[in-house]
Amino acid sequence: MNILIIPAFFRTKDRPTLGSFFWDQARALKCAGHQVAILYSDTYSVKCIREYVLYAEAASEECEGIKIYRMKIFCPLKHGMEGHREAFTRGVQQLYEKYVKSEHFDVIHAHCCVWAGYAAMRLSQKTGIPYVITEHATLFELHKDQISKFNDKCIRQAFENAKKVICVSHAFAKLISEYRTAGDIEVVGNVVDFDQFRPDKSEPHREMRFLTICYMNTKDQLIKKGMDVLLEAWCEFSRKCNSAKLIIGGGGHAAQKAVEWCREYGIEQTVEFIGQLSREQVVEQMQACDVFVLPSRYETFGVVYIEAMACGKPVIAAANGGPDDFVKDFNGILIEPGNAEVLARAILYMVSHREAYQAQRIVDFAMEKFSGQAIVSQLTSLYSQVLT
Fold first, then answer.
1. Do 238 and 154 fall within a single domain?
2. Whole-number Å distance between alpha carbons of 9 and 173
3. 363, 303, 304, 370: which is closest to 330 by C-alpha?
4. Is 185 found in the same domain as 49?
5. Is residue 125 part of a domain?
6. Do residues 303 and 190 lie in contact, with contact meaning Cβ atoms separated by under 8 Å?
7. How far apart are alpha carbons 108 and 116 in whole angstroms?
8. What is the pLDDT of residues 339-378, one digit of tens each?
9. How far apart are CA 121 and CA 89, in angstroms?
10. Distance between CA atoms of 110 and 10, rounded to whole angstroms?
11. Mind giving me the DSSP string for 52-89?
12. pLDDT per residue over 205-244, tens digit each?
């Protein structure tokens, strides 16, 4: 099949891991024999004028046999979701006209309704190509109050007209059932690159290493990812055990706030900030850690947990939606969201029971559920249903 992918956000030179799950899925589809192209418009308001001026992404490139077309769009007169909606849609349509109009596509696959799904609907109306939406966005759980009545109407249109709506977890599918009948929503997880994320054969450290990785662009992101809870829990844990280290990866303007929290708790000696990481560095850190921990208050899926499992590492996650589907007793611990005391106990349990987690069993489970082959098989079946 020929598949046209429209992601709501995509990797940049400055943020090479952004939307990595979109890219991994595109690669998996290509490896399975499908033809894949990606259209993406980067939209900027007046608040982001500097980023707009310094924009340096290639307009057209081919990577691993996948054609990627992108452009920057400036929307100076309208801000927020409404301006972004029309600017993003305009960019996608211009890219289609300029680069791929003469090509045949069987299906458009949009990632996130706001606003890739909406742009897919508009492009479908113009071209007759059917579209599907995979929804990933925490917007519908955490920022529902920010959606205006008009934007809500546009979102409903996009979901209702899609040939298939896919969610990345069962909990999220229930949430999206407000826009689409729950029984009509498919659940398909994200792809993880098991060629890249794989176990390392080195000996475990004497000092246990706990790893967390997240973007820290705003304080709200820190709270969403539970960094406040993690550092409070680490303070509590450190009173009982001083033979472990917490490694924090990820860049962003708000990282300094996390550093300040460490100082307030007096845990600077056992916490290390390693900054923004490339894809390769993420793999290295996953392989080098003993446990991955990220107590997010909400996740629609949580691909970073699966990447850790692909490296044979147990995880600690909050029962917040996405991880509920795949964190089991043999591969990790699910805790109550926002509870630092329970998280501290989970960390201590991992230190005391590190030998109880079998790396190969963790890898095998993750591969069975989230390998490229497993996910593409599900997607191909859904595409076929769309075309019959």
1. no
2. 21
3. 363
4. yes
5. yes
6. yes
7. 10
8. 999 999 999 999 999 899 999 999 999 999 999 999 999 9
9. 9
10. 12
11. HHT----SEEEETTEEEEEEEEE--S--HHHHHHHHHH
12. 678 999 999 989 899 999 999 999 999 999 999 999 988 9
Residues forming beta bridges with residue 321, ordered by sequence position: 299
| Per-residue pLDDT, 286 | 96
Distance CA 109, CA 239 (A): 50
Q: Which residue has the tokens 């057209």?
A: 60
Residue with tokens 């844990």, as numbered in its chain: 237
C-alpha distance from residue 338 to each of 250, 301, 327 (Å): 21, 18, 18
Low-confidence residues of the chain: pLDDT under 50 = none
Contact by Cβ (8 Å): 213, 285 = yes
Which CATH number does the domain housing residue 253 bear? 3.40.50.2000
Q: At what angle do helices 372-387 and 359-370 cross, to 10 degrees?
A: 10
Cα dist from 293 to 122, 306, 351, whole Å: 40, 12, 13
Indicate whether 31 and 156 sit together in one domain.
yes
Q: Is 139 inside a domain boundary?
A: yes
> What are 103-133's pLDDT values in tens digits?
999 999 999 999 999 999 999 999 999 999 9
